[in-house]
Amino acid sequence: MPATATDPGTARPRSWWGWGYTDAHPDDAECVATGSLLPGTLARPLPIPQVADLGIGRPAVAPPSSLAHLVAADPEVRAAHAMGKGYRDVIRALRGRPGRIPDLVARPTDDREVADLLDWAGDHGVAVIPFGGGSSVVGGVEYRGDAHRAVLSLDLTSMDRVLEIDKGGRAARIQAGALGPVLEDQLRPHGLTLRHFPQSFEFSTLGGWLATRAGGHYATVHTHIDDFVQSLRVVTPAGTSESWRLPGSGAGPSPDRMFLGSEGALGVITEAWMRLQERPRHKASTSVVFADFHRALDAVRAIAQSDLNPANCRLLDPGEALLSGASQDGSTVLVLGFESATAPVDDRLATALDLARAHGGRGEAPAADRAAADGTASADGTAPADAAVSAWRSAFLRMPYLRDGLARMGAVVETFETAATWDRIPALIDEVRTEAMYAALKATGHQATVNCRLTHVYPDGAAPYFTVAVAGRPGDEVAIWDDIKAAVTDVLHRHRATVTHHHAVGRDHRPGYDRQRPEPFALALRAAKAALDPHHILNPGVLID
Amino acid sequence: MPATATDPGTARPRSWWGWGYTDAHPDDAECVATGSLLPGTLARPLPIPQVADLGIGRPAVAPPSSLAHLVAADPEVRAAHAMGKGYRDVIRALRGRPGRIPDLVARPTDDREVADLLDWAGDHGVAVIPFGGGSSVVGGVEYRGDAHRAVLSLDLTSMDRVLEIDKGGRAARIQAGALGPVLEDQLRPHGLTLRHFPQSFEFSTLGGWLATRAGGHYATVHTHIDDFVQSLRVVTPAGTSESWRLPGSGAGPSPDRMFLGSEGALGVITEAWMRLQERPRHKASTSVVFADFHRALDAVRAIAQSDLNPANCRLLDPGEALLSGASQDGSTVLVLGFESATAPVDDRLATALDLARAHGGRGEAPAADRAAADGTASADGTAPADAAVSAWRSAFLRMPYLRDGLARMGAVVETFETAATWDRIPALIDEVRTEAMYAALKATGHQATVNCRLTHVYPDGAAPYFTVAVAGRPGDEVAIWDDIKAAVTDVLHRHRATVTHHHAVGRDHRPGYDRQRPEPFALALRAAKAALDPHHILNPGVLID
Q1: SS3 of B101, please?
Q2: What CATH number is given for A282-376 in this structure?
Q3: What's the half-sphere exposure (Cβ side, CA atoms, 13 Å) at B497?
Q4: Is B236 part of the contact surface with chain A (CB cutoff 8 Å)?
Q5: Is B470 helix (H, G, I), strand (E, B) or coil?
Q6: A231 has which bridge partners?
Q7: Which three-class secondary structure state does DSSP give residue A449?
Q8: A146-174 CB burial, b ≥16 within 10 A, e <16
Q9: A287 CB near a chain B CB, below 8 Å?
Q10: pLDDT in tens, B443-481
Q11: What is the CATH number of domain A162-278?
Q12: Which end of chain A is more exposed for a tag (fewer CB within 10 A), N or C?
């Protein structure tokens, strides 16, 4: 197996310590320029960390000869599988204190090999961390503690094929290790799309989406990966689970829903039949400006409670709008978009605009069904129609890179998301903002920037997504972030807002999750895990002990 | 507690042995007239069974004095809780051989009483059968076997209140024992509706819908009760589980989805926060006639794969269309309807009609948005627009009563449903028809009527619903039906079609379910049950042993 961290789809080099492609990382000058916006950051960026400086030792175990051809043990590969890509991970790498480096990285090519690796690991007390694109921002793919003799990172990305397409039924059997672009490239010739575009799209896999119940970037209806699942194939230490391809079923609790969100703790998802969609032919989008954030919330609720089902309905608070270039004047901006493969969407956009205007929004419908007219389609299937939309989209994909640039300037900068019912939303957002600023100030002595946007909206609530940035104290960044996160998690708990809407639980959210999860469900989940993973080797520490 | 079997909402008398209200049962003359349509049935109807003839003895246990006020032991109440309302139940009652009569029937009024009853039952080896409206058609609410010292039917219908309404967030906290009309009556003054209308609407409860993953009568999108659940409260022997009210969450596998479809085997659902909808203001419906059933399937698939989301898209095969009066000439009929609380639906109906015509359908759009124009709304919120739609609707609600009338004429008559992907549907329907007719002929010597309709449609498949009717052999009706069901279940299994789309598993579907369910999921479910129900008292025999 090559020791490379090159992206299988693009041949571009992947960063072992930071987000995405190394060639897309901000250079030192850009880091300094970005850092200058945040008072108190460093004068010069922290150096890019080197694997050689980590002093990675020999693995504690060797694989059996029958599996050796699947397994790598060189430091570069192991370092690239040590952690996810959250701020905690990036700053630990920058400070030379990454999480425990796995002893081995295996890249199985089929279910038999996955099962053999699990058997071997179970027999030898080796923890197995299923690994897709490695984009976890919640500590989902690292090992903590020392209860296991060794750690194996199980990288699924060699299983990345679309194995079957049912064009008439608009579904495909897809291997779990396919990264977003890799699977879309295989579907495109058939005129079909999974239409699931999380921010991590390029760097996350189908299996990762399924194991973490990922949310796509569409605002309503079909955006949760859960709803696209027709059937799952999951290799567990107790055998392989394969559900039937069914459009709907009432035969007992859904087997698939038990594995969705199980974060590798119950088994390794190796493939799924996924529901697909035709590529949209009609699109229209625009932005609406509000002077008042709370009135904008009312507008969004009205749109979410209609049956207009916007593809995008993303509300940017003034800070978020400023940061992304969508607005310069302290306005709140609503990015609104509609799509359809069946019929024009102008009427839906116009009706949504009417609802927004009734709550004080200012915005115009674009002249025509733009995307359909000019035939363009961007990488993720959306087509921005105006400058604010376009500015926001570019910023959206660039954000994680900028976060890493700020981290190199010694900033503490991270995002987190939640969801709550509408009655909670206004106070929740206000209190998270206040508590995050207070916690940041207390921990650092600096003023923090706290921005908020709504990423997903529902008839009964919304998902606010927060970004916090503040100058850190050299060497204390992780502790500072943990303090801030603990403070906002308390706010979430007080408002009965979920500890995560679409980033999963991992290890970082465990304290909040343990408080949120009903205790009888914890009993059931623990029992289910003991039945499927009797040697307790699967992703120890996530979800349940 | 009164010993009556009177409906709490209407004060109309409920039948202990047959469907619904006794005053709606066909009289002897109607039974004879209906039976005459089915060659080989009896000349005179079987007499209506009497509780006094069942020889119901004394209960094997007495409740503790602290709970005695909640518990009834008189024969009428116990007989009415002995079984569900499937054909197997009705014919067993008619033949004087009902399932095991429960020793006691308890009607708790709050969670504390439910927990106390479970504690007492656990301590005394008493099986507990949660009971809502008692409309199970799969043996979901009866006790089979003799592993328990006694049987307690836990009737939840005294817990039937809407406890809270969040009008802005369109949600309500509803007790699980509320029958359909009881909860809708409490929501109507607020302009809201749960909009869940299974055929059993009048005789089934919210808790029953949740425990069985019920399907409403709408064809697409929001029709499964699962999707309306914001949070659940479930009393288990190991404690009470209460999930948070969340519009969406990615925090681990969904706790609610484990209890949805658990059929009382993991706990007793006592209340839920449910997502509501505004009452629709715009409606339009029509019917489309096809000369060929298979071309009609293609039309339905095209409509299901659009994003038009019809409220009704019910395809009736020629026999079904004839039986319901929707067509007399051997045509296939598609009942098509649209609803919206936001915007007119005429365009959507017109586009759907275009799709149907492109596949050989003949039909016209109604002149105007009918229901909105005349302001009428029927009991279940739909408003038929033409004669075929109207005929079909009346027949739909009358069908279970007619089934019981036919049962009194010695017929074997029952329905069953399934779901499969589109590629399976045409052959599946043909083979089920053939095998059911063959099995019926072999078992009875008579020609059976086998009709099919599609009740729910999806982009990736559909749910066919079958009705089988054939003259029985006196006294052998149960065995004959079991033979027919086993034959069609084999067809379903061969096509990987689910053993139930929305009728649940109960005890009748266990053999098919056991073959369908992935074995690792069975291990997990068994472990979860052992953790939550350590004395194995909860609805023994459903889902899992």
Answers
A1: coil
A2: 3.30.70.3450
A3: 31
A4: yes
A5: strand
A6: A273
A7: strand
A8: eebebbbbbbbbbbbbbeebbeebbbbbb
A9: no
A10: 999 999 999 999 999 999 999 999 999 999 999 999 999
A11: 3.30.465.10
A12: C
A253 CA to chain B: closest CA distance, Å? 5
Chain B segment 152-171 residues within 8 A of A by beta carbon are 166, 168-171
Minimal C-alpha gap between B439 and chain A (Å): 24
Q: End-to-end distance of chain A based on CA atoms, in angstroms?
A: 33
Q: Distance, in angstroms, between B276 CA and closest chain A CA? A: 9
Name chain A contacts of B263, Cβ cutoff 8 Å: 252
Query: In sequence order, what DSSP letters do the residues of A138-162 get, joined into one string?
Result: SS-S-B-SS-SSEEEEEE-TT---E
Q: What would the pLDDT profile of A221-258 be if each residue is shown by its tens digit?
A: 889 999 999 999 999 999 999 999 999 999 999 999 99
CB atoms within 10 A of CB A358: 11
- Residues whose CB is less than 8 angstroms from the CB of residue B240 and which lie 6 or more positions away in sequence, other chains included: A520, B111, B115, B233, B234
Copy the structure tokens of residue B161: 């209140």
- Residues 438-477 on A with a CB inside 8 Å of B are 456, 458-463
Please state the domain extents for chain A: 162-278, 282-376
Cβ distance A258 to B253 less than 8 Å, yes or no, reads yes
ipTM here: 0.94
pTM for this prediction: 0.95
| Residue B521 to residue A258, Cβ atoms within 8 A | yes
User: What are the residue ranges in chain A where pLDDT is below 50?
Assistant: 1-4, 370-384
Q: Which residues pair with A183 in a beta bridge?
A: none
B258 touches chain A (CB under 8 A): yes
Helices A293-305, A425-444: crossing angle, 10 deg rounding: 130
Distance from the Cα of residue A246 to its chain's centroid = 27
Cβ–Cβ below 8 Å for A543 and B252: yes
CATH topology agreement for domains A162-278 and A282-376: no
Interchain CB contact of B136 with A (< 8 Å)? no
